[in-house]
Design brief:
2 domains, Jelly Rolls, about 25% strand, about 45% helix, alpha+beta, single chain
């Protein structure tokens, strides 16, 4: 694979599109922890990816969405045609635009469900048109380019949300809204808030009420949900930083590193150091 096989278009290091067009399928080195929002579109290719230590297998024409901090590694792949869109919060903030685009918790920060979206032929044509328009805009040096690029990215994300909703039942009932609110609250506070009671107080509900809502959805318990998020972050820090177990424990809100080690070991049957060594 030659470097020139990958074309990259960039706007002030805050938004970029990479285009991969190979005559033969090959493997691309992109096993990294994400430091920005990324959209991968594998139009032709197959493979097995690990996203946050979970394995996913795909075959042709899939999109998947990664948020900052997520761990992405490649088990195996053969890619012929693919695109990668990368942007930072300063370019497009998914939280600010969530009321109109509604991608937060569906495409991005959706760490508890399958991250893949598979468009049909009609949807593929629409996404292709938007992407081609986006690349064409990168190649121009016209006024208001920032606004045009952001508008095309927004269109791409909106269409991806529609594809996701078309292919997956996304309920809008009370339980689902509460689950989303709870998960986003955990995402923002899991480093310092570990008790269900703390989140229940923020949501003006009782812990018992939240547990009942989770049971109706067939989800794990709220307490386990919080633990899973802490464990995921612990794994990320162990693998992708040089921080000690003690430093990680304090960063994740544990006053006693020994208690953090027991918490981690009980959950995955490995100590933090054993887990780090294995990877």
């Amino acid at each position: 694979m030659a470097v020139q096989d990958i074309l990259k278009y960039s706007f002030k290091n805050i938004f970029s599109v990479s285009e991969v067009l190979f005559e033969k399928a090959c493997t691309i080195d992109h096993s990294v922890q994400q430091n920005a929002y990324s959209i991968y579109w594998i139009k032709e290719g197959s493979g097995t990816y690990n996203i946050d230590f979970k394995k996913y297998t795909f075959n042709d024409n899939v999109l998947f969405f990664l948020s900052p901090g997520q761990v992405f590694t490649v088990d195996a792949e053969q890619i012929k045609t693919a695109y990668k869109l990368t942007f930072v919060k300063d370019f497009y903030c998914i939280q600010i635009h969530d009321t109109e685009v509604a991608c937060n918790g569906i495409l991005f920060n959706n760490i508890y469900e399958t991250p893949f979206v598979k468009p049909c032929e009609k949807e593929t044509k629409k996404l292709t048109f938007i992407l081609e328009s986006l690349i064409e805009e990168f190649q121009q040096n016209e006024a208001a380019q920032y606004d045009m690029l952001q508008a095309y990215l927004k269109q791409f994300i909106i269409n991806a949300v529609r594809v996701k909703k078309e292919n997956h039942v996304i309920k809008e009932d009370t339980e689902t809204r509460l689950f989303k609110d709870f998960s986003l609250l955990v995402e923002q506070n899991f480093r310092k808030m570990h008790a269900v009671t703390d989140y229940a107080n923020r949501l003006a509900l009782s812990p018992k009420s939240i547990t009942k809502h989770f049971q109706k959805l067939g989800a794990t318990t709220p307490s386990q949900f919080i633990k899973n998020r802490i464990l995921l972050e612990a794994k990320r820090l162990l693998i992708y930083t040089d921080k000690t177990v003690k430093e990680i424990a304090f960063e994740l809100g544990f006053n006693d590193p020994a208690y953090f080690t027991r918490f981690f070991t009980k959950a995955i049957s490995q100590s933090p150091l054993q887990f780090k060594k294995e990877y």
